[in-house]
Amino acid sequence: TNSGFRDDLRLTERDKKMIGRWVRNEQFLCFADADYFLTRYGHIEAHEEVLRFTPRISQKIIHSIMGACEDENRAIQLFILKARQVGISTGVALYFLHRLLFRTHTYAVMASVKQDQSKKLDAMIRACAKRLPFWLAPAKTSDRKTDSRWNNGSVLSIQSGSQRIGI
pLDDT by residue (tens digit) across 95-130? Predict the structure, then answer.
């Protein structure tokens, strides 16, 4: 059969339909609500420990600003000057991942002033993406050092403000 289930699983057709409906429901809820996706499927690595993402107040504020831009159908282009260690980079990186996975043909550029900070942004996204259930996200078609591509047409480019060529 072409249902996506292994042949050795003992599932009734009713069970397969219920699981299929649940998967489609989860996919839709994640598509429709970034907070749903992040609080259920978002994971971060902190001090050699994997934690489920719980948004801080600062992350909620940035999300509300991004939501207002989206509601008005404006491009989301933010330059965030901030203090260190307030969680903005982590929150934004995970929101980028949500957008890339659930909105087709998204082209996203993430950058920090320093190359090592840009690498950390990339590591945050990869750490979360590798923990997603296989059925939730589109497959990757390319995973190069500076950009990742998914089969939904989305592309993520990680760059640095200190690089020799422009962003």
Answer: 889 999 999 999 888 887 778 888 888 888 888 999
Name the DSSP class of 139. Answer: P
Q: Which of 90, 95, 92, 101 is nearest to 140 (CA)?
A: 101
Integer Cα distance of 45 and 113 in angstroms: 22
At residue 125, what are phi and psi to the nearest 5 degrees? -65, -45
Question: pTM, whole model, 2 decimals?
Answer: 0.79
Q: Are strands 147-150 and 140-143 parallel, antiparallel or unpaired?
A: antiparallel
Q: Cβ distance 11 to 5 under 8 Å?
A: yes
Using pLDDT thresholds of 50, 70 and 90, give the confidence band for residue 1: very low
C-alpha distances (whole Å) from 159 to each of 17, 114, 143, 146, 147 are 43, 9, 15, 7, 9
